TrEMBL record:
It comes from Actinomadura parmotrematis. This is Ava_C0101 and related proteins. InterPro entries: DUF5996. The lineage of its organism: Bacteria, Bacillati, Actinomycetota, Actinomycetes, Streptosporangiales.
Amino acid sequence: MTADDAALRAEDTELFPEMPWEDWLPAKETFHRYVQIVGKVRLAASDRRNHWWNVPFHLTGRGITTRPMGGLGEGPLFCVDFDLVRHRLVVDRLDGRSEELPLEPGLSVAAFYTAFMDMLASLGVEVEIHAVPFDLADKTPFAEDTHHAHYDPAQINRYWRILSQVNRLLERYAADFTGKTSPVHHFWHTFDIAVTRFTGRKVPVPADADPVTREAYSQEVISAGFWFGDEDRPWPAFYSYTAPEPPGLADQRLWPDWASWLDSGSSHLAVLRYDDARTSDDPVETVLRFLDSAYDAGARLTACDERALACPGGVTDPYRKEDRVHDR
């Protein structure tokens, strides 16, 4: 067994391994651009859903996926997956044809972009994207970016392992809400994973707001998620926010006491740092209670009917005594 294999085995027994932002920043900056390239293809080749639910990635047992797209007489049906166990980018067609690109140290964003677009072309997929990073400080076009070339298999595998555990945790959190709710999904533009609860009320959206914001926040929402950190907040954290933000939200108490409200300019985020959560006595319970406290704060101030929208444990059956689903 190699040292890398031993490290991965150790991480298998650790629910939330440490992930210092500065330690994997070069790998994150490179992989984030890979993900944006594929995400822009997903945006171009999928059918628009309310609140842009068609755009994000979903988790798989080996990495992240675009889910199937295309087809319906508008070109081949295809799917793109990042296999972060074997470290491959895989493009599959419905007819069984497939192309793979090894993800290796030294693979620049420019080389990734060129190879990926060639793979699509060889499979008969015709798609055009705006091939420039979205909301990243360095706007170098993908085809010209030879600077970001720091793919690190161990770091990216750890990112996926953490993402997978957070995905399960957010699924458990989502189960207690019976109203309109988003899938748990991974956003390629902001590199976070989130689930959103809707109170059921439409809200006025400024006409001069950008189209992404107008669609995402056309209804009142309380979101919960996790991000890996950025230059302004160089640490990973769980978060929650209410939009539009009701007056007094940042004055509401959060659980645990070491969670806090973070001023993000025009609004506030409820924040629980990842390192504080993962080193607590019960990380899962700590995060769930944090998210519940942030949701309760937003729901109270927006006069959301929490009782009507609750389904503890994902159950809405009014006559349930004991499920025997495993016997069916």
